[in-house]
Amino acid sequence: MVNGVECQPPHQVVIVGGGFGGLYAAKALGKVKNVSVTLIDKRNFHLFQPLLYQVATGTVSPADISSPLRSVLSESQNTRVLLGEVSDIDPDGQKVFMGEEVIAYDTLILATGAKHSYFGKDEWEKSAPGLKTVEDAIAMRRQIFSAFEAAEKETDPAKRQALLTFVIVGGGPTGVELAGAIAEIAYQTMRKDFRNIDTGETQVLLLEGLDRVLPPFAPQLSQEAEAALTKLGVTVRTNTLVTNIDNDIVTIKSGEETETIHAKTVLWAAGVKASPLGKIICERTPAECDRAGRVVVEADLSIPGYPNLFVIGDLAHYAHQTGKPLPGVAPVAMQEGQFVASLIKAKLNHKPLPQFKYRDYGSLAVIGQHAAVVDLGFAKLTGAVAWLFWLFVHIYFLIGFENKLVVMLQWLWNYFTRRRGARLITGMDVGVKNPVNQSVEYYQPVDNRTPLNV
């Protein structure tokens, strides 16, 4: 009680996950009076996932696309950041559990994202890594550049060709961007760097199960993307399914024909599934999970029967707008995070509650230098104009001025020199006979698709 007036305790908001959804919700609540925010993440940094493929292909370093959460939220005096992983929730008791630690909440926002899915073939993960975390990107970078190093020493032509064969499974934006970047590395960046091999003999294969790459885009943009990839030297195989990955052999099926490909490097970009927290939510509440493990939410992004428990971003299955779930892309998570924050503020101020409506500002994917596709709905861009638009969007939405400046300078350097300055092979023993596909754990001590669809 202050001056005879009873003080209400602050409204406790707990946010689990520091990705786009969780971070944008935290920032929107950062200066709201009588609200206390706790952001929990198992990493101490926010990762700009749309540029992870550039870490994997040696264009930028992990720190260039990461920002410490404490630094991003340092101006929000009502916000604290906790490093840890939520293992369980009690929606009736309004508690979350980090191991033995218990944190109470008045409102809970779950934004733990998604990871790659192998559609029931989880054993393929060792042979075909995906790209969702910093560790994934560093391991993928190690595998890509180690393949060239191993090929330089290999005297058997068949084994050397397998080392110089790269298979990317999945023709969505991540797969297209990876394929284009690897092609540029092999055919341009490193063409003069080796003495025993010609990196121009590299084979980059992009496999897509549907009839075109970039299925969410307009057909004409898919055609433009495939043409740009082919010009770079990528072999695009559509209507092609992977049926097995074992011992550096990829078995594929096109129609009734089955084929095997010998490749030391297989990269996975074919699907995603929700974080394990989705299953916990569906066990603790009446909510249902879809086949990808996403939680089916109400029109206001809450859980049925629990108006103070929200699920956003890649973890949420929101189909109230079009009848189909919103895509798992950064702008969806951003807008949902901001919406839930506005909903909390409206409730606390006893004002009419807003309605969530996702605004799709467009989709984009980059293929290589001077090659990209952009779908803005009212306009479709390709080539150099689309590429410049892609550059602007990514720089604009990077968190932190320092990150924007560093990445912009790095891109300028790469553009004029055709060099990739972050081609580091880290996290392995020096002098190994064959460094490709080794199971070495690496943890990057950096302080769950771009603001447009990726």
Number of helices: 11
Tell me how many strands there are. 25
The largest sheet, given as strand count, sense and whether it forms a barrel, is: 6 strands, mixed
Percent helix among the residues? 25-40%
Which band does the percent of strand residues land in? 15-25%
Low-confidence stretches: 429-435, 438-454
Structural class: alpha/beta
User: How many domain modules?
Assistant: 2
| CA(first)-CA(last) distance | 51 Å
The CATH architecture of the largest domain is 3-Layer(bba) Sandwich
Strand order of the largest sheet: 5-2-1-9-21-20
Q: What is the CATH fold-level name of the largest domain?
A: FAD/NAD(P)-binding domain
CATH class of the largest domain: Alpha Beta
Q: What is the typical, i.e. mean, pLDDT?
A: 89
The outline comes out as globular
Radius of gyration: 23 Å
